[in-house]
TrEMBL record:
This is C4-dicarboxylate anaerobic carrier. It is found in: Cell membrane. Its main location: membrane. InterPro entries: C4_dicarb_anaerob_car-like, DASS-Related_Transporters. The chain crosses the membrane at residues 12-30, 117-135, 156-175, 181-206, 213-231, 237-259, 300-316, 322-340, 352-372, 392-415, 422-444, 450-469, 481-503. Pfam families: DcuC. It comes from Actinobacillus porcinus. It is a multi-pass membrane protein. Keywords: Cell membrane, Membrane, Transmembrane, Transmembrane helix.
């Protein structure tokens, strides 16, 4: 009698392919529609209003032009480059000719999405190559052995420190795609400390996402959303800070509970059945019984590697960097490491290409996710969903209104996974609805932030599948782990919104 085959949850590739088919089907079901979009042309210092299948309308870049469109956004936000993406014009939604996608569009969108994500993919390849070179020098192996000795008995302090730093990174600069760079260095650390794959994702992705959900000064979400809502980003910051403290505390306590559980009984791990595969993948160069000398050269190599991350964060926050610049900075440091390593040329090339090749799957996931977004955009159904949602909440009682906003942004987060993209699309439409019920607009900004990120913990079109593919963690295991934290996020968010309703009415 043959053994009964165990069910294996579909891989990230299969999940995204299924989502892509569903997206194509939705373009046949959901009516197509479009808002007019306002774009600032910096070269000619004027506004351009783009309306579907109509000639562009040119307006002077003045406050009067914004008022005529009922857009309550400071003109400086456009002229100074704070808002660069198209802004939805309130009251301009119109049904348009249906633009359904077909079977052939599935493959086309996969290719076009991959091309569109080329900058991110190059960054990931360079990162993988850098890791490959450092692994060949033995620096990681020697460093992990030294770290394991020094932290014996205080292993959770490393997890705690990473959680705090990632939450701070999330709330200040919205560290999301950039967090991918932290896995290759931190995953072996957590494994050497006796933890599992889920702890790696929890300390990096979960903590940074909770910080981003309760953004305080993040320019890519709460700042741009506040600007698009016509208010200062400092409005409501006290409540967002309270949420950040509570949310981060929940993550740390949850991680402490889980880490203690798997330390006491390794079989408690949600990824226990794949532990050997995971360990072999990330610790194949680490042998705790073979102690490599942690000499000056290896310390310098690891120091250069660690320096790459604060440089990257500085570049994003202060230097206007994006993925090409980040990739270039990592490549520069990789070349420096190559010279220090004293490896032979062929060894360096082999190590770099092997390291990059191990992240090909991760890069393709990013391209497939972009393909889903392309189908939704070209099918012109995202604006229809937003218009329908705004009609639902209009005229609701105050408490029901703000909680409904929270729920709406959970749904919109699935269709528009970009935080800045959703901000400029939705805020000009949703924020004025707060005026009608007599509450401050910053409450809608908070609902946007908390609702969207509750969805992005799970949304296949976001970064979660990229993370899980990188660590080869089944999606169902992640769902089991993260659901309590999604519940905590929504409970904290809903409570803070209700408290604000009581204060402001």
């Amino acid at each position: 009698m043959s053994e009964k085959k165990l069910f294996r949850f579909p891989t990230a590739f299969s999940i995204l392919f299924i989502i892509l088919i569903i997206a194509v089907a939705l373009t046949w079901i959901i009516p197509a529609g479009s808002y007019s979009k306002l774009i600032y042309n910096a070269a000619n210092n004027h506004f351009v209003v783009k309306t579907y299948q109509q000639p562009d309308k040119i307006l002077p870049a003045t406050k009067e032009s914004l008022d005529s469109l009922n857009i309550k956004i400071d003109l400086n936000n456009f002229t100074e480059g704070t808002i660069r993406k198209p802004i939805a014009v309130p009251g301009s939604y119109q049904r348009v000719e249906q633009n359904p996608k077909n079977v052939q569009d599935i493959a086309i969108s996969m290719v076009e999405g991959t091309i569109e994500a080329a900058d991110v993919m190059v960054f990931i390849f360079v990162l993988g190559g850098m890791i490959g070179v450092i692994n060949r020098t033995g620096s990681f192996n020697a460093g992990l052995t030294a770290l394991a000795k020094r932290t014996k008995g205080n292993e959770f302090f490393i997890v705690f420190s990473v959680c705090v730093l990632m939450a701070i990174g999330g709330t200040t600069c919205g560290i999301e795609e950039e967090a991918v760079a932290f896995y290759p260095i931190l995953v072996p650390v957590f494994l050497a400390l006796g933890y599992d794959a889920i702890v790696c994702v929890g300390a990096i992705f979960l903590a940074s996402s909770m910080g981003t959900a309760f953004s305080t000064v993040n320019p890519f979400s709460v700042v741009i959303a506040s600007n698009a809502a016509g208010i200062q980003f400092t409005e409501g910051i006290m409540f967002r800070t309270i949420g950040l403290i509570l949310g981060s505390a929940c993550v740390i306590c949850y991680m402490y509970w889980y880490c203690n559980k798997i330390k006491a009984d390794a079989s408690f791990s949600y990824t226990y059945e794949i532990r050997e595969e995971f360990y072999n993948r990330y610790m194949k160069n680490y042998d705790p019984n073979t102690e490599l000398e942690f000499n000056v050269r290896r310390k310098i190599i690891l120091a250069i590697f660690c320096i790459a991350f604060p440089i990257m964060i500085w570049g994003v926050m202060a230097g206007g960097w994006w993925f090409p610049e980040m990739a270039a900075s990592f490549l520069t440091l990789t070349i420096l490491i190559m010279f220090i390593s004293k490896l032979k040329e062929q060894e360096i090339i082999d190590a770099f290409t092997h390291g990059a090749s191990e992240l090909v799957g991760v890069s393709l996931i990013i391209g497939l996710a972009r393909g889903v977004n392309l189908v939704l955009d070209e099918g012109m159904i995202s604006d229809t969903i937003l218009a329908y949602m705004s009609d639902i909440v209009a005229g609701m009682p105050i408490t029901a209104f703000i909680l409904a906003q929270l729920g709406i942004f959970i749904i919109l987060g699935l269709f528009v996974p970009s935080s800045s993209g959703l901000a400029v699309l939705s805020m000009p439409i949703m924020a004025p609805l707060a005026d009608a019920v007599g509450i401050p607009r910053h409450m809608v900004v908070s609902a946007y932030n908390w609702g969207q990120y509750a969805m992005l913990f799970l949304a296949p079109t976001g970064l979660v599948l990229v993370t899980l593919q990188m660590l080869h963690i089944p999606f169902d295991k992640w769902v089991k782990f993260v659901m309590p934290m999604i519940g905590a996020l929504l409970l904290i968010g809903a409570t803070l919104l209700i408290i604000q309703v009581q204060i402001y009415t």
